[in-house]
Amino acid sequence: MLNLLMILGLTGIYMTMVVEGYTLHFKNNCNFPVWPAVGKAPNGHPDPSISYGKKLNPTGEGHFEVNDREIGIRSWARTGCDANGANCATGACRGGLRCNDGGITSRVLLGEYGYQSYGNVISWDLSRVDGSVNIDTSITNDGNVKTCRKNNCPTQQAFAQPNDFQALTTSPVGSTFRITFCA
């Protein structure tokens, strides 16, 4: 009986630790290094509890897991950074390699992701509302594709103004979003 109680107890602990999440998978198709970043800034307020940064050399890949219930998640590309992932020419942030400002200071094209309780989905988009296109970027998921290039970034592909809702897309929780630089 004691063994059964221990198994049930351990199973309960394990079940409470399992967290569903989605994956941001980065691919550098550029012929120069790119430093992808992920941060959190719900409603424009930085929250350093979520941050990611990594140097990707040409053809390099990296990924970051995010809890499905998170809101205000942003991803972006940084270029021309120093050896520590700081002082970037584009997409700069506070905090160096792992940004702590949620991308608020990046002033570049952002991928935006957030949980929507209605429909139990992740809404996502590209946005250039607060910045410019520093690097051609594409996000794909389950057949949905959003691409924004320096010379071609229509509003159905990326927000240019806060009300460009045709750029908004939804995907199931637990999805993988493939973010390609120099797409």
Automatic annotation (TrEMBL):
Keywords attached to this entry: Disulfide bond, Signal
Pfam families: Thaumatin (PF00314)
InterPro entries from the UniProt entry: Osmotin/thaumatin-like_sf (IPR037176), Thaumatin (IPR001938)
SS bonds (residue pairs): C81-C88, C93-C99
Taxonomic superkingdom: Eukaryota
Stored SMART domains: THN
Cleavable signal peptide: 1-21
Protein name, entry field: Thaumatin-like protein
Lineage, opening ranks: Eukaryota, Fungi, Dikarya, Basidiomycota, Pucciniomycotina
